[in-house]
Design a protein that fits this description.
Helix content is 25%, strand content 27%. It is an alpha+beta fold. A hairpin with a 4-residue loop joins strand 3 and strand 4. Helix 3 packs parallel to helix 5. The longest helix has 14 residues.
């Protein structure tokens, strides 16, 4: 079994649940190292001290905050322990939110929570309550010398946690969300709705793969065997055509005919009202 990254308690009200956290997902990458082009040796980045003019051992490394160029406040490991908050061992649920109220942009890393021995009943109780109410909990937890806000939700008959990006970590992009002054023709909206419907399908995560990683692995394997692989197909540039024509051609490509009866949400609501 994978090693846990945090051990402590979830509490809500007077109920406490001893748990362990396990990383729920990790990106899989095919990492390429930096190689010296002359001698084909892998390049390394040693811990080099320019003052002592030597490579230092990791046992000589401490942490420090640079408050002015070249000046640091030094932080000892014991001092880190002294300032660790109670959330380092107790994850208290502060509130419960409707699942639909949280934009997924706030989800950072995911973890799976498992109950400790003999804690199955309170674990199951919280899980059932979240399933019945369609809510998720919000709590604080300290891990890896940082305090996180986390969302706790029911998923696949277990508790899954997501660390939260704080509001100041969400990028503000100028122009995003702008109410563009454009007029959409009702026929364009109907065709766009129909195209979305024709492309709709149930979510099956196994259908989606990292094709670049697969081709990179194929390239590495081929080079090891002294072979070559075929180049990836080039993307063709779509011709600039009329919006209506583009929508109709897209539907035809899906084997669907533009429907005169297809209506957007607004028009469907007006029909119901009448």
């Amino acid at each position: 079994m994978a090693s846990s990254v945090w051990k402590g308690m979830i509490s809500f009200g007077l109920v406490s649940i001893p748990i362990r956290l396990f990383v729920a997902a990790r990106p899989k990458r095919t990492n390429l190292h930096q190689i010296h082009s002359v001698c084909r040796t892998r390049l390394k980045q040693p811990l080099y001290c320019p003052h002592c003019e030597r490579i230092v051992d990791r046992s000589e490394v401490i942490k420090g905050y640079e408050y002015e160029p070249g000046k640091h406040v030094l932080i000892e490991p014991e001092e880190i322990k002294q300032i660790t908050l109670p959330s380092g061992k107790m994850m208290e649920i502060l509130a419960f939110l409707d699942q639909g109220d949280v934009d997924p942009i706030y989800f950072e890393s995911s973890y799976m929570a498992l109950p400790e021995a003999h804690a199955e009943k309170p674990y199951r109780l919280l899980l059932k309550a979240l399933e019945d109410t369609q809510k998720m909990g919000v709590a604080k937890v300290t891990m890896h010398q940082r305090e996180y806000t986390v969302f706790i939700r029911a998923r696949n008959n277990g508790l899954t946690l997501h660390t939260m990006y704080y509001q100041n970590e969400i990028a503000a992009v100028e122009g995003y969300g702008k109410n563009y002054d454009v007029k959409l023709k009702p026929e364009e909206v109907r065709l766009a709705d129909q195209l979305v419907e024709s492309l709709s399908a149930p979510f099956k995560p196994e259908m989606f793969k990292d094709e670049f990683r697969e081709r990179l692995n194929q390239l590495i394997e081929a080079k090891l065997k002294g072979k070559t692989i075929t180049a990836a197909p080039k993307a063709t540039k779509a011709p600039v055509i009329d919006m209506m024509q583009a929508l109709k051609k897209s539907l035809e490509g899906r084997g669907a005919k533009p429907s005169k009866t297809a209506a957007g949400p607004g028009e469907r609501q007006r029909r119901k009202a009448s």
